[in-house]
Structures
1.
Amino acid sequence: MSLACSTRHALLIALLLPSACDARPSEGVALSGRTPLPLPVGPTPGPKLPAPPVNNPFAQDAMTLNAGRLYFNQYNCSGCHGGHAGGGMGPSLRDDSWLYGKEDAQIFGSISEGRGHGMPAWGVKLPDEVIWKLVAYIKSLRTSEEPEPPDQTVPPPPAQ
Ligand code: HEC
């Protein structure tokens, strides 16, 4: 019998008869004698991870706002909140009343996490970048920056 083989047998016996063998390594200690690195399982206690940015990292510029408007229609936010976010099955995002807060981070949270009464969580589907552009667009509503505001969607009367 080779050495490796007999070692394996000794180990097998030690595993089968744990009480009969004091030399059995205690759980968690690697056979090599090195302390194993702790494996992170679930939330680990300790200092908090850095919080996501509180303010929109994107500037309220035309490119961001146009992209936000595009996403608003593309992801069917408009289907529930109305074409210009004036409200539908979902609440108006144009008015002054906010159920969950009007700060950048709060609007981001509403979109990313979803809200109890029928607002889907988009964080699982959309990258942060897209959500921030939606936030920028929502914040631009009713301002002079708003891309394609509702009154401009009405075609001007034909020139005489
Ligand atoms: C299936 C319909 C539906 C879709 C699609 C939808 N929403 Fe909503 N949304 C809602 C409803 C309903 C609420 C109110 C939830 C509540 O009262 O808990 C809401 C709430 C919100 C709020 C919070 C409003 C406040 O007053 O605080 C924001 C912001 C928002 N939605 C943005 C979006 C954006 C952006 C999209 C597209 C990515 C989107 N929603 C897509 C139905 C929808």
Note: Helices lie at 3-16, 62-74, 77-81, 104-113, 128-140, 150-153.
2.
Amino acid sequence: MLLLAGCTGNFGLSAPTPIASTPPPVAASPSPTITAATAESTAAAISIPVPTVLPAPAEISPTPYPTLVTPTPPPTVAATHGPTAAATSTPAPTVLATPAEALATPPCPCDPACPCQINHVVIISIDGLRPDAIERADTPILDGLRTQGAYSPAAQAVLPSVTLVNHAAMLSGMSPAKHGIYWNSNDPDLGKIKGPTLFSAAHEAGLSTAMVVGKPKLEHLVLPGSVDNYIYAGFTDRQVVNEAIPLIQTNMPALLFIHLPDVDSAGHAIGWMSLAQLLAVSMTDSLIGEIVAALQEQDYLSQTLLIITSDHGGSGRRHGSDSPEDTTIPWLAVGPGVPAGVVLPGEITTYDTAATALSALRVPIPPEWDGRPVLEIFEPASP
Ligand SMILES: [Zn+2]
């Protein structure tokens, strides 16, 4: 396991790099790139001025992260539109590090003396997002973040590939057999997730936590006293972002989870990979640009690890099966110490998200967790 690489990695801006080494799609069906009506506003969202007020010296990072959202040409992977990721993904992920091994490693890959200090982790879950939808839709924000960070188009959900079970794994670091969430509805009689969760572990370590979600059933994942600020914003991305941005501006926690429901809603209403859903992906991309802009305006970007992923994919108007279309999810990390253009291995499982977040925040990973920190995000990109 490579450690400390983030402290010596490439911090310089690099030319746009192909972000995936997947071969051309084997069954690519021509599909128009969605030119969203939001393209103009999206372009505006990524033209964010460099902050003129610099963070305190202890927090400042000389990494190029504040220029994270500088418009960049689309990565060359955009030419390989098609359901590549789902078709070529390999299920049956392997947990590379046992919890004991994870505990035995330094909790943070960054030396405290290094500039890659991470003081905040923001996890954005785009509900129902297939990785090949990013390739087909117009997503300048996600494209820019991918070129600046580490990305896998072949991370894996747990089974069944439904929202609550997978968000439970994503935010608890555990498989369903351990986290105990086997249902996918909002039913207070069914109780809470079995901890420790990402939030309870972070909170016990003295860190502030917040969740802003677009589905009320996610409250099943909130253990008492573990989330300082839990907000069910409403069932749309716009409502969620409208709550998340003031939180960033006035009460930014060390750990922030943001759940965006629109892509899943479009999939259920019209169909996965339909033009309507791809337009929803594009609009969600624009809203993520607003979140990144808020982080930048408040000078948090240089000290924030941003993880963007999903809970499951889908096909037709459904999900929940063990098919690659349902279980393959994108997994993106960008932040201080993460070199640009890192292509991550395919062994990432959604419960690794929680372990990665705790590791970045220098909080010990609970021994009962299945997840392992994805430390490959801090390894230099291969040539
Ligand atoms: Zn979902």
Note: Residues 127-128, 163, 264, 311-312 surround zinc ion (CB under 6 Å).
